[in-house]
Amino acid sequence: MIEVIPGIYRMPLPLPIPTVSHINTYLVKGDNGYLLVDTGWNTEEAFASLKKQLAELGINGREISRIVVTHAHPDHYGMAGKLKNLFGATLYFHHLEKDVIESRYVNMDELLKEMSLWLKGNGVPPDRLAELQKASLPMLKFVTPAMPDVTLYGGEAITCGDFSFNVLPTPGHAPGHICLYEPDKKILFSGDHILPTITPYVGMNPQSGSNPLGDYLDSINSLKRLDVDLVLPGHEQPFTGLKDRIEGITLHHSLRNAEIMAALGYDSKTAFELTTGITWMHDVNGVGWYKLGTWDKRMALLETLAHLEAMRVKGELEKFTREDILYYRLPQKAKTSE
Ligand SMILES: [Zn+2]
Ligand SMILES: [Zn+2]
């Protein structure tokens, strides 16, 4: 537990995954109780850590009267249902995240079927299908689903003590992702939208909207106009230099586009063929797709798709269907005019 600025405490909670060790939850001091931003996975370890950090502050959980979740991924939302019930807190999150709760965490059959067709249509061979289709199921045990008491649409102000946070919709990493901006204190709770060194994952899937990477780049660039001194992210450490970080992330995505284009050449390829043909995990010297774990394999494929669709929307690629499989290629008009 660290007091990042007077009245705001960062409480990192452990995550049971090797790639990212902690999620940051934040506690904001109000006049009538505390506001909690994000909740962590619903594991014994995370809950014990939260209780310990609250005790260090001399806070009873029941003093947490409101919980705002930046987006409904298990690491941010997993414990929301448990804490809401336990503390009697009011839960806030965006309506587009509310829409996915039922299909993702309660009745998954439809989504699994849809995911299977989606993967098949993007070139995943039959022997890989079952593994990739079910890649996210192990996450379910870390989530206690709950619906919001207050549904957010963007543009609201959430006041708490000395703070008044503007709710900013920032789609891309998740369709209903929000950031909270405090213009007087110049702080931004960025969730997973912007992290200091990790590039936030942006993937395309049946629930992501038609151009999540386009949405993501638009929404990170829209934050450049904000006057921000300190960013309070969902993982890693609080940081300064928001605009430079936005430039860095934007550049990363341009380089990924170039890499995918190079792998495509003048051929027609599926998203699966392209995913297996490029390098992953650049920050740890890079590995081929076949070396990734199941969860990362699927993320890689959905990330490649997000890049392909963003380039297609800009007219840099086109797609066509052959025997129910989608292929990408350079626009044929541009090719013949060379
Ligand atoms: Zn996330
Ligand atoms: Zn996260």
What does this molecule look like?
The protein has 338 residues and is an alpha/beta fold. It has a domain at 2-102 and 142-248: 4-Layer Sandwich (Metallo-beta-lactamase, Chain A). It has helices at 44-56, 74-77, 80-87, 95-106, 109-121, 126-133, 212-222, 242-264, 271-277, 294-313, 332-336; strands at residues 2-5, 8-14, 22-29, 34-37, 64-68, 90-94, 150-152, 157-160, 163-169, 178-182, 187-191, 230-233, 318-322, 325-329. It has a seven-stranded mixed beta sheet with strand order 1-2-3-4-5-6-7. A five-stranded mixed beta sheet has the order 8-9-10-11-12, with no helix packed on it. The protein has a two-stranded antiparallel sheet with strand order 13-14. It is globular. The termini are far apart.
Q: What's this entry about, in short?
A:
This protein is of the alpha/beta class and 338 residues long. The chain has a domain at 2-102 and 142-248: Metallo-beta-lactamase, Chain A, CATH 3.60.15. The model has no long low-confidence stretch (mean pLDDT 93).
